[in-house]
Amino acid sequence: MEVEELTDIFYTSDKKGQVCRVKLNGQGFTLQRETTNNRSREQLIGLEDIVGSRCIVVKKDRRGCSMLCSSAAQNDGNRSDSGDDTKKKYNAITFQHNDASAYLYVFAYILNKKHLRNIIRRERTVLKLRFRSFDTFGDNMREAERWYHTVRAFKGRSLGCNDIDERRILVLLNPKSGSGKAREIFNRQVVPVLNEAEQPYDLHVTKHANYAREFVRVKVLDNYSGIVAVGGDGLFFEILNGLLMRADWLDARNILLGIVPCGSGNGLARSIAHVCGEPYEPKPILGATLTMLSGKSMAMDVVRVQQQNQILYSFLSVGWGLISDIDIESERLRSLGYQRFTIWTLHRLISLRTYRGKVSYLPKENVYMESDTISLAEPLPLKHSRSCNTCLDTMNSGCFQSTDCIEASKYYDVISLQNSISQSLKSRCDSWFSPASCRSTYHSVSESIYHSVDGGSDAESHLQHSNLSVHLCGPTGSAPTLNEPVPASWVVEEGEFVMVHAAYQTHLGSDCFFVPQAKFNDGIIYVVIIRSGISRSQLLNFLMGMSSGTHVPVTNNEFVKMVPVTALRIEPYDNEGILTVDGERIEFGPLQAELLPSMVRVMAPK
């Protein structure tokens, strides 16, 4: 169905009497201002940067301060009401100076390149449109709602459907992730953006280890468009394994998976941002939240890990030796956040360990059968966009001499304060979901559900500590089983190793650029092997180079090499060492890893 393009003339509040033509179409909002010398200046707020819009009613509280509330514009049944009937629905509202204006707020997050240090980040932008062409509030509100529904229709069409997906997002939050601030981060930084986008969600707080895995394995997922982990890579690991252990895993794997990085490592979130060319620092939470709302996704390879007593599914890495030792043993310093890795790296470098065993792998060129994978296009260069904190007032010949937007100066004072955490909270005072008094508590949108640690649904109450060592369901591979000998096409290396670490994402952590050439669905496991005999100075250079991706030599040498493979087997000779999958410690013993191409879909930036 074709969506009608809308155009109207507004006044700007920053310069009295200045006219601005506003056009809404499939590209977004185009603002065309008339300047001196009869020249015009255009600015575009792209549709891909808009997360949502809201029809607003301005009222006064008892102290005379202006406040904002939602107009419930999504109720189409109200569109035929007369102006008087519409006012009855807002009988608690005292209109300022008998003003019958209606407002449309448009929330966008636009790429902005700072001049200092060339930092590229997304910044919150609010476009405020005031409709007052008609004499009655009801008529003005219906006009504002027409623009509101048109924004939603264009957003839906950009996603290949008639309207925005109304299904909920299932959010699982680990309150102990990272430094233990995941709950606070979610309430302060994620919930406000979800509210602006009118995205309903169900929030469940995990209670113990493997809670998320068992929860996702038994949860009915029909009403969810995606599952998001608010925590670290360990929580996403549980969600992935719960999804692929379902009896209906073949259908369930099509649900979109996302992550809001609140852990210590955050390798997956950093990899998504890097591969898609989306800014990560200095606002990783904002970027991940916008990724949740983008409606975009990309296929991701999964690695099936087989041990004697269990099958696991991995999205990040499999490790034995140095990096795994650092990851697990530094848990005692978890309160330090990401810095714990640096401290324990120095400790482990001083007391270096080696491990005896055998490593077998199938090089990429000898893959059993090439799979059809969807290659992700190279990220487009970031475009510089100007911030547009704009308040516009619709033109009405009957009120040409009217004053500017109500509380306009206060609005601009608030929006301009976006450079610190405390000030960014103030910037949301004029948003639809909070009064002008600016409290730190945010309320979720209608239809959103929060399940506390002490309560929950009936299905949740049945979850107990489960022994998940027995594999239930899930995809299988074509490689020989762990008990069978490797085929002649495999390469076998034997001896003493400092580490063997296989990765399939660009980053193992937010500051660990481990495989610069990796893609999410390239069908490759990148195995880094470091043999015994390497000097501590060489190893120090390797570890320091991991932050920039320069750790692996261009040409493999006798001590360090990186090999692209599709299957891997690790067989330790001695009963010592640490084995990890996606940063989680697993039972020590032989393991085999095999790549399953494009097995799941992850949420991606626009």
Structure, described:
- Helices cover 22% and strands 31% of the residues.
- The chain has helices at residues 83-89, 137-158, 182-196, 211-218, 233-244, 249-252, 267-276, 284-293, 322-329, 339-350, 408-415, 421-426, 458-461, 536-545, and strands spanning 6-12, 19-25, 28-34, 40-46, 50-60, 66-70, 102-113, 120-131, 168-173, 201-205, 224-231, 256-261, 296-306, 311-314, 317-321, 355-363, 390-394, 449-451, 491-503, 507-509, 512-513, 525-531, 560-572, 579-581, 584-586, 591-604.
- The strands form 3 sheets. It has a 15-stranded mixed beta sheet that branches.
- Strand 7 and strand 8 form a beta hairpin.
- The radius of gyration is 27 Å and the shape is elongated.
- Mean pLDDT is 79; it is low at 69-83, 85-97, 367-390, 396-447, 452-462 and 464-471.
